[in-house]
Amino acid sequence: MRDSEWDGVQGSPTYEQQVGLFPFKTGGLSVEADLLGASWYVERDDYPIVISLPSDQSDFAIARPGGKALFREVAWQDAKLLDVTIKVFQVAVWVESEATYKLFPPDHPEGTDGQEALNRAARTAVSVAEDFLSWLRVRAGQFWLGASHESLDNAGTADLVDLQAGRRIKNINWNYMQYLTLHGEPAGRRDLVS
Predict the structure, then answer these.
(1) What dihedral angle (degrees, nearest 10) is formed by the CA atoms of 44, 131, 166, 102?
(2) Which of the 8 DSSP states describes residue 153?
(3) For a Cys staple, 187 with which of 15, 94, 180, 193, CB 3.0–4.6 Å?
(4) Is the distance from CB of 17 to CB of 70 less than 8 angstroms?
(5) What is the pLDDT of residues 129-162, one digit of tens each?
(6) What are the domain boundaries of the chain?
(7) What residues contact residue 57 under an 8 Å CB cut-off, 6+ apart?
(8) Distance (Å, whole) CA 109 – CA 115
């Protein structure tokens, strides 16, 4: 049951739209400066998704540690920026849950629902980010962007943002981790949070 099916039912959940913001490191993506602020829309696993390059150093402020550069200016000519090296890109995944920006205990049902929504979206965000870097590695001939067998590096925490309020939902974020398997047995876990 969703939205209108719940109308008039006492105690029914209200689903709000949020966006999960997932910042990833590129490994040094070289692009023309005209691509700063570029974005691409894709759909995967029934999620609308936007992949974005930063337009300036203040982008992705919600989801990244403060003070770290998102790109490096590489080449100028006649006071015009020509080339940059992108350090961070963002994958935004639209989700729905009962969570709102208001503070609530992490074990509250609305918080649990929001955390589950972000965790589900995370799998898709990682898959899209890996495919994006793979495409750039091959299509743009930027082989240094990391081999396909290497894990993706995060560039801060992934957060859930309440679109109606325009604010981060507290107590909900996603931990980047990779589970290793050796001959079918769990071999351990490596946290990718740097």
Answers:
(1) 80
(2) P
(3) 180
(4) no
(5) 989 988 888 877 777 666 555 667 778 778 888 8
(6) 15-191
(7) 69, 70, 71
(8) 10
